[in-house]
C-alpha cells in the first residue's frame, strides 16, 4: 500500500504558512500520486488582563483583532493551498478546527491518525516544531517535516537516504517509507560510525537484504561522526549525495509530562536540512 491520503498542517498564527511551503506540500502529494487535505486551525487567544489594563490598553479589542487575523490568514492559506493543488493536479480538500496554542499539537495529531502521512513545514516559529513532535510521537503515523523556505523539487523522492542504526524507531521508519523507497531511483543506507554503539551490533547489509526482498537496491555507506553532532552528519551526508528525502527513526522519552527529544531528532525537527520522513 502506498501513501494515498496526506494531511498538511497549515499555520495561521502568528504568521501564515508561506507559499514556498504550500508549493512543496502539493509537490510531495503529486509525486506520490496522493490526495491532500489541508488542516487549518484557528488559534483561540485567551482573554487575560484586569479592569485597569483593559481600560488603558483595550485588551479585549487587541485579542479580537489577533483572532480576526488568525482566521483571515487561515482562509488565505487554504485558498493558496487549493490553487497550488489545482496547478499540481492534486485532489485536495480542507478542514478547519480551533483551539488554543497549547492544544494545537494534540489537535493535529488527532487528524493525523486518519491520514497516511502528515506534512509539516518548519520555519523559525517554534509552534510548528511542537506540532511536529506531537504528530511524530502521538499520532501513530509518520510525519514528513521539511524546511518551509526550500524551493519545490520536481522529483523530491528520486534519491532517498536511510539513517540506519538498527533501532526500533529506524525499523519503523523504513517500514513506513517502503512505498517511497520502492519508487526511488537511488536508495542509500547510511550508518554513522564512532557515534553510537548500537550501529555496530548488526551489519547494515541485513537491511539491504530486506530491501532487496521488496525489489529495492540500496547502496551502503558508513559516515564517521568525527566529532560532529549526528544531525549535522546526516545533513552533510544528504547534501553531498544530493538526497531529496531522508528516512529516520525519532527518539524521545517522557519526563514530568514534557517530551525530551533525542539529540539528532531535536536537530532535525527544529532545523530540517531537507525533507525528512520521521517515525516513532
What does this structure look like?
With 280 residues, the chain is α/β, with parallel strands linked by helices. It contains nine helices and twelve strands. Strands 3-2-1-4-5-12-9-6-7-8 form a ten-stranded mixed β-sheet, sandwiched between helices. A two-stranded antiparallel ribbon has the order 10-11.
List keywords for this structure.
single chain, 280 residues, alpha/beta, Rossmann fold, 2 domains, 10-stranded mixed sheet, two-stranded antiparallel sheet, 9 helices, 25% strand, Universal_stress_UspA
- How many strand elements? 12
Considering the protein shown, what is the CATH homologous superfamily of the largest domain?
Answer: HUPs
Annotated CATH topology of the largest domain? Rossmann fold
Going across the major beta sheet, what is the strand order?
3-2-1-4-5-12-9-6-7-8
- What is the straight-line distance between the termini? 19 Å
Report the average pLDDT across residues.
90
The number of distinct helices, counting runs of at least 4 residues, comes to 9
In short:
With 280 residues, this protein is an alpha/beta fold. It has 9 helices and 12 strands. Helices cover 42% and strands 25% of the residues.
Amino acid at each position: 500500500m502506498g501513501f494515498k491520503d496526506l494531511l498538511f498542517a497549515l499555520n495561521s498564527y502568528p504568521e501564515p504558512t508561506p507559499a514556498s511551503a504550500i508549493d512543496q506540500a502539493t509537490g510531495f502529494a503529486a509525486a506520490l500520486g496522493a490526495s491532500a487535505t489541508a488542516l487549518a486551525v484557528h488559534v483561540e487567544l485567551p482573554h487575560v488582563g484586569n479592569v485597569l489594563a483593559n481600560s488603558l490598553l483595550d485588551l479585549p479589542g487587541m485579542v479580537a483583532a489577533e483572532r480576526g487575523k488568525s482566521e483571515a490568514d487561515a482562509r488565505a492559506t487554504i485558498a493558496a493551498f487549493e490553487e497550488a493543488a489545482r496547478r499540481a493536479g492534486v485532489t485536495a480538500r480542507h478542514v478547519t478546527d480551533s483551539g488554543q496554542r497549547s492544544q494545537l499539537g494534540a489537535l493535529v495529531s488527532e487528524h493525523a491518525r486518519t491520514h497516511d502521512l502528515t506534512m509539516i513545514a518548519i520555519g523559525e516559529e517554534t509552534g510548528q516544531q511542537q506540532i511536529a513532535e506531537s504528530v511524530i510521537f502521538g499520532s501513530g503515523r509518520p510525519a514528513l517535516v521539511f524546511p518551509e523556505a526550500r524551493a519545490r523539487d520536481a522529483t523530491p523522492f528520486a534519491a532517498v537516504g536511510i539513517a540506519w542504526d538498527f533501532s526500533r524507531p529506524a525499523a519503523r521508519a523504513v517500514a513506513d517509507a517502503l512505498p517511497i523507497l520502492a519508487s526511488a531511483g537511488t536508495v542509500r543506507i547510511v550508518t554513522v560510525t564512532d557515534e553510537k554503539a548500537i550501529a555496530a551490533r548488526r551489519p547494515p547489509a541485513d537491511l539491504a537484504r530486506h530491501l532487496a526482498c521488496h525489489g529495492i537496491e540500496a547502496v551502503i555507506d558508513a559516515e564517521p561522526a568525527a566529532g560532529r553532532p549526528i544531525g549535522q552528519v546526516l545533513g552533510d551526508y544528504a547534501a553531498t549525495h544530493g538526497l531529496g528525502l531522508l528516512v529516520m527513526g525519532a527518539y524521545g522519552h517522557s519526563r514530568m509530562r514534557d517530551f525530551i527529544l533525542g539529540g539528532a531528532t531535536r536537530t532535525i525537527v527544529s532545523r530540517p536540512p531537507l525533507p525528512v520522513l520521521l517515525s516513532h
